Q: What sequence folds into this?
């Protein structure tokens, strides 16, 4: 069981959220909360639903209307989905960079340009800085000047 497991009947969820059951029905019709349904079409609320109901109650207490709350919840869900996607892409990029170790070394030239170097190659001009950042454990970074 986790926070998304549908456990609570409407009366229990309403009590936990500090609302009337009819309010929960209205929020379901408006799409603010989407409880799961049993085979007999009874609503079953999860702990996540109860937390969302409490958030809705707080927003209405601050003076937001239901359409504004619906939009806020929609945007919060989009942010969650996009954040998860960013984490997936960052992990894929880290894996790709680890698979190509020769592309992880760069030099910053005196004019500010970035030059890609193969592992073990030295920079030809003086006063250039080579930055190497392995993506392995601890995300350590090593900075040093080259000759």
A:
């Amino acid at each position: 069981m986790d926070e998304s497991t549908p456990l609570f009947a409407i009366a229990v969820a309403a009590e936990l959220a500090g609302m009337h059951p009819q309010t929960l029905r209205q929020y379901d019709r408006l799409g603010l909360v989407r409880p799961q349904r049993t085979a007999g079409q009874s609503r079953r609320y999860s702990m996540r639903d109860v937390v969302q109901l409490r958030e809705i109650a707080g927003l209405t207490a601050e003076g937001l209307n239901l359409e504004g709350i619906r939009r806020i919840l929609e945007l919060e869900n989009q942010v969650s989905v996009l954040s998860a996607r960013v984490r997936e892409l960052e992990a894929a990029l880290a894996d790709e960079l680890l698979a190509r170790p020769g592309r992880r070394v760069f030099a910053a030239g005196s004019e500010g340009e970035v030059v890609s170097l193969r592992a073990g190659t030295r920079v030809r001009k003086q006063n250039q800085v080579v930055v190497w950042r392995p993506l392995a454990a601890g995300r350590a970074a090593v900075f040093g000047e080259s000759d």
Observations:
- The helical segments are 10-17, 21-30, 47-61, 66-99.
- Residues 10-93 form a domain with the Multidrug-efflux Transporter Regulator; Chain: A; Domain 2 fold (CATH 1.10.1660.10).
